[in-house]
Write a structure and sequence with these properties.
The structure holds 2 protein chains of 2 kinds. Chain A is globular and about 60 Å long. In chain A, α8 links the parallel β6 and β7. By secondary structure, chain A is of the alpha/beta class. In chain A, 55% of the residues are buried. In chain A, α5 runs antiparallel to α14, α7 runs parallel beside α8 and α17 runs parallel beside α19. Chain A contains 21 helices and 18 strands. By secondary structure, chain B is of the alpha/beta class. Chain B has 2 domains: 140 residues, Aspartate Aminotransferase, domain 1; 242 residues, Aspartate Aminotransferase, domain 2, CATH 3.40.640.10. Chain B has 21 helices and 15 strands. In chain B, the strands form 4 sheets. Chain B has a 7-stranded mixed sheet, with helices on both faces. Chain B has a 4-stranded antiparallel sheet with strand order 11-12-15-14, with helices on one face. A two-stranded antiparallel sheet of chain B has the order 1-2. At the A-B interface, β2, α5, α7, α8 and β7 of A face α4, α5, β1, α6 and α7 of B. Chain B: Belongs to the class-II pyridoxal-phosphate-dependent aminotransferase family. Chain B: This is serine C-palmitoyltransferase. Chain B: Pathway: Sphingolipid metabolism; Lipid metabolism; sphingolipid metabolism. Chain B: Its EC number is 2.3.1.50. Chain B: It holds the Pfam family Aminotran_1_2.
């Protein structure tokens, strides 16, 4: 890889008298874009006039930048930062994709305090009348549904219950799913059976996408690297990994992932769901036992079912229940025959996407020492999002990642890419390359996706420049041996969680200095940690019942009634500044605990969170959602004392 | 006696006191008097009923309190241990290693996987620095590396970023996905289509979305691994018919119908599952006959066109175009965007009902993030290229013919693939089965004569006369052929499968994938290299 020779010179902006122009680089790019459009360069490539393309870091920006066709109210904070940047601050991102936030106090580090016991999440129950009315409201729609058809029960739920709230799901969108998102408006004339587009678009604040570190960007160094890779590699690898679909990029990316996770070796699969469903069958088989958390993801259950292993479940995150189950299954052995189990594999998730709870990793590792099971941690949501270095739950709890046997995760969430990985020791990964469905039958990951993974991962890690000699380039390593896992330059100096050596990246990837020194990655991690903690605690202070850990970027807010859930979603979407959120209900959650789920991102600013809080405050009042017991603060106090709220050790 | 009574006196006091408080508290509850009146009157009328109701209430409470993840310690196989014994058992137990060590053969296999440096395409560069002719990548229509696709990909990247950052149900449903689904449906001529983000996970999700326990599936014995997994997950009843033998299918369907009438069992959902061009050997299904049978016996047809979509038909629409059958005759038409359009993902096309059902029930659709926009647009662009340039498919067919002309006449190769199939499987043909290692007995004459007689058992996935071959030996020979061809500058590959995990043992083969991106001369050159490699390696074995 090469380093950009100090290309976007901030001094360029400093020289300008800025008081009149309350803008940053994104404005300039947008202006240049608008200018180009005005000149009638419509279908062609967007070559802006050289005079205006002052900033090279904001490359030819896409259609949906700051100056989107007709922005209604420019003062609403969606398109322009509500606090104008000063001349000292240079933002290289587009505000609608990655919000501008220069206040260094709005940062926090996601880290477990060492030595402290991991507290379980106290699940607050709502008053009984809420529970009873929830059941009654289900009963009501069920009865009405049954009245309307009492023959076919099969699709009853979908037709009669879900279709009432279908307008809250599968909403078509366009553009970058970053800090904001463009909804394609639609309406239904036949009770949500079909939807017609109105042709208009609405930009809303996006609290719904899995974009924890804000890498969903159409601009910036990662996108530049992907563009380069498309030019060099095209869009596909055209085969499976075991046949002829292995590119040099795959080996480089796998080596980088292994380094990032602090494991010996790693493999990459082209789909997150399939990572579990095609690899678990290679880990366990008949005669083995899988112990699975009751809230594990569908892909895990799918994979376990294919494997033919026995399955037992334990109560969510309950280590006592797990231990007694372990004692039972080890002493009893296999059912009927009482033969000892071949292996016992415990599968848990790092961060549960519906609950916002974190796995109690220290306790699990204690149990592991005694009961000799193998541990599989699915970090689909926690990798990148948790821990002071973004390396997931192991980093968060400060335990050695190698004490976990199998680390699985996806690139969809924190890295703005797609697909998944498995990291483990070398023997395990080699075994999986030979015996799992993934390597023999699934398509290899596409080169642009690999590049996004590498570029975003490197910017989280930071890059140590290693002068490229003739022999140390990663390509020549490939020449010397054609063994599959290539250990790219064995640098013991940069131990876990250290930086990536520049030789681990392809030499055509050029990253700006802010990415190489890791400051960009640190900024993202710290902003996400602040946002998560702020929203979690602020919602509780407002009196809402939320599940989940304080540091979790997934924040579930309980609404209980299925009807309220839909109303909540619609009210958020139709506000003056629309807010896009996800609502989930049965069957993804237990029947009574319908919930709203917020997915925070490093791209959100503190003002964005304030906006969400204000909306929740108003809607929560209206829908009677503030049912939690405990101390409450008024909204103004929360927004004013945000930093204090976040840095409090305990939040009652 | 009196002493005991007096000593029990405080107890009675406490009892009577607590009873009184309980009673007063009970009557404080709203509606409690109604309950009390009901209990009293019912007890008066029928004392036995009170007892029964008390039992019922206790049972209900017990059922409610029982946890769903309860330990199965009430079963008759449960042995109770005390804590110390359990501790000992825990100490004694040693698990097997998580991953078995690779055997030398497996290590060799891992080391033999070629690494392409730079883009894949008709003439990729390998890690040993050599540029080779590619007869292995799924790039039938030569879309890999297409400049138009690259350009639209970059434009999409700037507009959408890379990842979709969410499942389709939760704001991951971008307009480009809707567009590609529409493009595929229009291209094939179906009402609608749904996009999955990986080809392998498509049909293994489509099958369980429609077929549940108790439903009936009639499947070909030679279906690919993804279908096998879909059948396994769906837990439905499966009947098997001989590989690509529609007479056998008809017999099985008739037998099922007869059995159903005899047992008067209720109608269930019924499906025929097969492939257009088979992944295992390149054989092609007779689609018109399949449609005829499915209509006659009232089944639905799930057709996997992962290989045939984008490789046969005038413009690459697959088997439906080749046989001129309207695509809406196939109920669920599954294809691979990764193979057919050199992008990523898979699709299922069908009616609106079929597609919308999957949007809620297709496991790997619902629980997976939507495909990156860039890859989606690349596929849309690929479809428009195929539509506008029918010459691509005629070039492809010419290339296939050119290769087949050379390889068909080599006497140490046998080819099970259909002449129009863009994947060509090459089996080793050894002079006689006597050559095989002694542990495989030669087919007895009684068995071979019965080939037209007794049909295979439809309950078992293994055919009555399983083909006999020495997989170890053939694999080794084929790998030698691959390496020999590679040394001569032609990249080919063995069809890699998980032996032992597939339903049946599949005869090892070399799988060629012909591309329209090569010219005829290159194809002939490559085919001659493959031929020479076969003659050299297998010929040596014969001597």
């Amino acid at each position: 890889m090469a380093i950009n020779p100090a290309s976007p010179t901030p001094s360029m902006f400093r020289k300008k008298p800025s008081s009149a122009m309350s803008t940053a680089a994104s404005y300039l790019s947008a202006v240049s874009k608008a200018d180009a459009r005005a000149r009638g360069l419509n279908g062609g490539s967007t070559t802006s006039t050289p005079a205006l393309s002052l900033s090279s870091s904001v490359t030819s920006s896409s259609e949906d930048t700051v100056l989107h066709e007709d922005i209604g109210d420019s003062a609403d904070g969606l398109y322009y930062p509500s606090v104008p940047p000063t001349s000292e601050q240079v933002f290289t991102t587009v505000h609608t994709e990655f919000g501008h936030c220069a206040n260094e106090s709005y940062r926090y580090t996601s880290r477990h305090t060492p030595g402290e016991p991991v507290k379980g999440v106290v699940e607050q129950d709502p008053p009984y009348y809420i529970l009873i009315t929830t059941y009654v409201s289900y009963l009501l729609v069920i009865c009405i549904g049954h009245l309307r058809d009492f023959i076919d029960f099969d699709s009853f739920y979908t037709r009669r219950l879900k279709s009432r709230i279908d307008d809250c799901f599968s909403h078509p969108v366009t553009g970058v799913p970053g800090r904001t998102i463009l909804l394609l408006d639609r309406y239904s004339t036949d009770h949500n059976v079909t939807f017609q587009p109105t042709g208009t678009r609405t930009r809303g604040l996006n609290i719904s996408s899995y974009n924890y570190l804000g890498f969903a960007q159409g601009d910036g160094p990662c996108a530049d690297a992907v563009e380069e890779s498309v030019a060099r590699y095209g869009v596909s690898a055209c085969s499976t990994r075991r046949e002829v679909g292995t590119l040099d990029l795959h080996l480089q990316a796998e080596a980088l992932v292994a380094r990032f996770m602090g494991m010996e070796s790693a493999l990459i699969s082209s789909m997150g769901f399939a990572t579990n469903s095609t690899i678990i069958p290679a880990l366990v088989s008949k005669g083995c036992l899988v112990i699975s958390d009751e809230f594990n993801h569908a892909s895990i259950r799918y994979g376990v079912r294919l494997s033919g292993a026995n399955v037992r479940m334990f109560k969510h995150n309950n280590m006592q229940a797990l231990e007694s189950l372990l004692r039972e299954v080890i002493s009893q052995g296999q059912p009927k025959t009482h033969r000892p189990w071949k292996k016992i594999l415990i599968i848990v998730e790092g961060l549960y996407s519906m609950e916002g709870t974190l796995v109690n990793l220290p306790a699990l590792l204690e149990l592991k020492k005694k009961y000799k099971f193998y541990l599989f941690v699915d970090e689909a949501h926690s990798v990148g999002a948790m821990g002071p270095h973004g390396r997931g739950v192991a980093d968060y709890f400060d335990v050695n990642p190698r004490s976990i046997d199998i680390l699985m995760g996806t690139f969809t969430k924190s890295f703005g890419a797609a697909g998944g990985y498995i990291a483990g020791n070398k023997a395990l990964i080699e075994r999986l390359r030979i015996s799992s469905h993934y390597s023999a039958y699934t398509e290899a990951m596409a080169p642009p996706v690999l590049t996004q993974v590498m570029a975003s991962m490197a910017s989280i890690m930071g890059v140590t420049i290693i002068p490229e000699t003739k022999n140390s380039s990663s390509l020549s390593l490939l020449h010397s041996s054609n063994a599959i896992p290539v250990p790219v330059t064995n640098l013991e100096a940069t131990a876990y969680p250290g930086t990536a050596p520049s030789t681990a990246l392809p030499n055509w990837v050029s990253l700006p200095p802010s990415l190489c020194d890791g400051s960009d990655g640190r900024m993202r991690l710290r902003r996400l940690a602040f946002n998560s903690r702020y929203l979690n605690r602020a919602l509780r202070k407002l009196g809402f019942i939320t599940y989940g850990h304080d540091d979790s970027p997934v924040v579930p807010l309980l609404v209980f009634h299925p009807g309220k859930m839909a109303v909540f979603s619609r009210m958020m979407r139709t506000r003056a500044i629309p807010i896009v959120i996800v609502v989930v209900a049965y069957p993804a959650t237990p029947l009574v605990t319908s919930r709203v789920r917020f997915c925070l991102s490093a791209s959100h600013t503190k003002e964005d969170i304030d906006l969400v809080l204000k909306a929740c405050d108003e809607i929560g009042e209206l829908l009677d959602l503030k049912q939690a017991v405990g101390e409450r603060w008024p909204l103004e106090e929360i927004t004013k004392r945000a930093v204090e709220l976040v840095s409090m050790k305990e939040c009652p | 006696m009196s002493a005991t009574t007096s000593s029990l006196e405080p107890l009675f006091t406490i009892l009577s006191y607590s009873y009184a408080t309980l009673e007063t508290n009970f009557y404080k509850l709203p509606g409690s008097s109604v309950v009390a009146r009901y209990v009293k009157s019912s007890h008066q009328n029928d004392p036995g009923r009170t007892l029964l109701e008390v039992f019922l209430i206790i049972f209900a409470i017990r059922t409610l309190l029982q946890s769903r993840t309860r330990a199965d310690n009430s079963g008759k196989h449960f042995i109770s241990f005390d804590e110390k014994e359990i501790d000992e058992l825990v100490d004694e137990w040693t698990p097997e290693p998580l991953a078995a060590e690779l055997s030398p053969k497996e290590q060799a296999e891992l080391a033999s996987i070629p690494v392409i440096v730079g883009p894949t395409g008709p003439k990729p560069k390998l890690s040993n620095g050599k540029t080779v002719l590619n007869l292995a990548s799924y790039n039938f229509t030569g879309l890999a590396g297409n400049e138009d696709i690259k350009q639209s990909g970059v434009e999409t990247l700037r507009k959408y970023g890379l990842g979709s950052c969410g499942p389709p149900g939760f704001y991951g449903n971008q307009d480009v996905h809707i567009q590609l689904e529409k493009d595929i449906a229009d291209f094939l001529g179906t009402e609608s289509a749904i996009l999955y983000s990986q080809a392998f996970s498509t049909i293994s999700s489509v099958i369980p979305a429609f077929c549940k326990r108790g439903d009936l599936i009639v499947a070909d014995r030679g279906v690919n691994f993804s279908i096998q997994k879909g059948l396994q997950i769906s837990r439905c009843t499966v009947r098997w018919y001989d590989h690509n033998d529609l007479n056998s299918l008809e017999q099985v369907l008739e037998a099922i119908e007869k059995e159903r009438q005899k047992k008067r069992s209720p109608l269930t959902r019924r499906f025929i599952v097969t492939e257009g061009i088979f992944d295992h050997d390149g054989a092609m299904s007779d689609l018109p006959k399949l449609i005829e049978l499915k209509l006659k016996f009232k089944y639905r047809l799930i057709l996997d066109e992962s290989i045939s979509f984008g490789s046969v038909g005038r413009t690459g629409r697959g088997l439906t175009e080749l046989y001129n059958v309207p695509a809406d005759q196939v109920d669920m038409l599954v294809g691979s965007v990764a193979n057919g359009l050199a992008s990523a993902g898979g699709f299922c096309a069908g009616t609106n009902i079929v597609v919308n059902h999957q949007r809620i029930n297709g496991t790997s659709f619902v629980f997976s993030a939507a495909m990156p926009a860039l890859l989606t647009v690349a596929a849309s662009e690929g479809i428009s290229i195929l539509r506008n340039t029918p010459s691509i498919l005629s070039t492809l067919q010419e290339n296939i013919r050119a290769v087949r002309v050379i390889l068909d006449r080599v006497d140490c190769i046998s080819i099970p693939s259909h002449p129009a199939s863009a994947t060509i499987h090459l089996h080793v043909k050894l002079p006689s089965p006597m050559h095989l290692s002694p542990r495989v007995p030669p087919p007895s004459p009684s068995l071979s004569s019965s080939s037209s007689g007794k049909p295979s058992n439809p309950l078992s996935p293994t055919p009555r006369e399983a083909p006999q071959f020495d997989a170890e030996l053939e694999e080794k020979l084929l790998q030698d052929v691959v390496e020999e061809a590679l040394a001569q500058g032609v990249l080919i590959t063995r069809a890699k499968r998980l032996r032992g995990q597939e339903l049946n043992d599949i005869r090892p083969s070399i799988r060629l994938a012909i591309s329209a991106a090569l010219n005829k001369k290159d194809c002939e050159k490559a085919a001659n290299v493959v031929k020479a490699a076969f003659v050299k390696i297998v010929g040596r074995q014969r001597r």
